[in-house]
Amino acid sequence: MGKERRWTVEIVFTEDDAGTRADARLRTPTGVHELSGWGSSRRNRSEPDVRDIGEEIAAARALWGLAGHIMYEAADQIDEFKGYPVGLIG
Predict the structure, then answer these.
(1) Rounded to whole angstroms, how far apart are CA atoms 38 and 56?
(2) How far apart are alpha carbons 57 and 10 in whole angstroms?
(3) Of all helices (H) and strands (E), which one includes residue 4?
């Protein structure tokens, strides 16, 4: 096995009457890439107020958005290196 590298994602939640928002932020150890994604959830007023569920949904959506940004960033770097578009996305 090679040298271990670690990325840390921070997820920050904000809540209001409309629901929960999650902002996921990634900064790679080299500091070259700072990417983010966000997601939200909204509770139907007729459902019980279970904060964990709203946070889980918002976090999953934020991470999904972050994953898309990571993929686009990788594709852009490969495009730049090769000099033509590659098919990572789609």
Answers:
(1) 12
(2) 16
(3) none
Residue 19, phi-psi category: left (phi > 0), alpha (psi -120 to 50), beta (remainder): left
Q: What pLDDT is attached to residue 80?
A: 87
pLDDT in tens, 24-40: 999 877 776 789 999 99
Q: Which fold has domain 8-82?
A: Double Stranded RNA Binding Domain (3.30.160)
76 contacts: CB under 8 Å, gap ≥ 6: none
* Domain ranges, ordered by start, for the chain: 8-82
CB count in 10 Å sphere of residue 11: 17
